[in-house]
């Protein structure tokens, strides 16, 4: 792989996850500089395209979360500019970013995922909220988990334990997106499995177990130090750990992802994993799960990011 003389890290954007993205961008920039790479960090504003055209980077590391960072849009622009970047291509991002679609794809290859209903806001209102919600409870049972069909960081997500809680959960969800995904809530151990491919096929890193103090891994629990306890590797049986690793690699492959991804999984009381969702631009902050998995594997985050950038540059040149 060739030298990286000029690397661009994209961070910020205009999604609800802007602040997290900026933190991820700073972290990636820091570890790359520690690995001897010249890095510039830029936001996705009107100056980006002229900047790239005037001084094309050797490769781009995308740390944009939500919206354009994960739905394939910014990657489409990078391809228009003929700039290599780390991560999945636009088409794969679009599929993975839409949670109901991603669930359908992984289910088609035998991956277990909670039963669910996808409900656009218009349908929710047009058909009568009370009747629709009553049927959802009858069909899926309780408890339920409600979240926007697109987006991340648990924004607009909530656990519903009684039928009376469901209407307000839907309203909270629709504040962050026009379509709600309502899943059967699986009680169990929440884990995250990062997958990296350094040229020899996708490999799962050690699973990270998530134990939030407040019981739910919400926005505050994700990004406020001390609000969540993490175990890397997760305190799972060898069989459950292997099943989670296999599930994450299968999801990564089935969805056509590339370089790096992170799959969120719940392991029930019998040790069976359930696929929840996949992230094509995993967080890279001090409290994010991918860096913890890298450390648990005995690897260096700066080295990993450098190799991924070198791989992207080599892929482009070939």
From TrEMBL:
The record places domain ATP-grasp at 103-310
Query: Which positions are annotated as binding Mg(2+) 1?
Result: 264, 277
Look up the EC number in the record and give it.
6.3.2.4
Q: Function of this protein?
A: Cell wall formation.
Q: Name one Pfam family in it.
A: Dala_Dala_lig_C
Similarity comment: family membership:
Belongs to the D-alanine--D-alanine ligase family.
Name of the gene this protein is made from = ddlA
Locate the active site. Answer: 17, 153, 288
Identification of the protein by name: D-alanine--D-alanine ligase
The answer to whether the entry has keyword Manganese is yes
Cofactor dependence: Mg(2+); Mn(2+)
Residue sites binding Mg(2+) 2 per the record: 277, 279
**Is the Iron keyword given for this protein?**
no
- Name the GO cellular-component terms: cytoplasm
Reactions the enzyme catalyzes: 2 D-alanine + ATP = D-alanyl-D-alanine + ADP + phosphate + H(+)
InterPro entries annotated for this entry?
ATP-grasp, ATP_grasp_subdomain_1, D_ala_D_ala, Dala_Dala_lig_C, Dala_Dala_lig_N, PreATP-grasp_dom_sf
């Amino acid at each position: 792989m060739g030298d990286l003389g000029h690397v661009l890290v994209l961070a910020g954007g205009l999604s609800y996850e802007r602040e997290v993205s900026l933190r991820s961008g700073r972290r990636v920039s820091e570890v790359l500089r520690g690995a001897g790479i010249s890095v510039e960090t830029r936001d996705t504003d009107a100056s980006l395209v002229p900047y790239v055209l005037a001084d094309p980077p050797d490769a781009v590391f995308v740390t944009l979360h939500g919206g354009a960072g994960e739905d394939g849009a910014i990657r489409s622009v990078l391809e228009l500019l003929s700039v290599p970047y780390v991560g999945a291509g636009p088409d794969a991002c679009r599929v993975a970013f839409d949670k109901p679609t991603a669930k359908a794809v992984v289910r088609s290859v035998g991956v277990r995922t909670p039963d669910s209903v996808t409900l656009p806001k218009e349908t929710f209102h047009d058909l009568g909220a009370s009747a629709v919600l009553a049927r959802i409870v009858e069909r899926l049972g309780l408890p339920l988990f409600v979240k926007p069909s697109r987006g991340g960081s648990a924004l607009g997500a909530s656990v519903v334990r009684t039928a009376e809680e469901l209407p307000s959960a839907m309203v909270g969800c629709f504040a962050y997106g026009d379509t709600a995904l309502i899943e059967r809530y699986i009680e169990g151990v929440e884990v995250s499995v990062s997958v990296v491919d350094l040229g020899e096929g996708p490999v799962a890193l050690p699973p990270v177990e998530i134990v939030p103090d407040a019981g739910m891994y919400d926005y505050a629990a994700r990004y406020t130090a001390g609000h969540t306890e993490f175990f890397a590797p997760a305190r799972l049986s060898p069989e459950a750990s292997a099943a989670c690793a296999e599930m994450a690699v299968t999801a990564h492959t089935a969805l056509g992802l590339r370089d790096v991804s992170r799959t969120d999984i719940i392991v029930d009381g019998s040790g069976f994993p359930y696929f929840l969702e996949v992230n094509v631009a995993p967080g890279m902050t001090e409290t994010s799960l991918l860096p913890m998995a890298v450390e648990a594997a005995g690897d260096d985050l700066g080295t990993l990011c450098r190799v991924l950038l070198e791989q992207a540059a080599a892929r482009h040149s070939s």
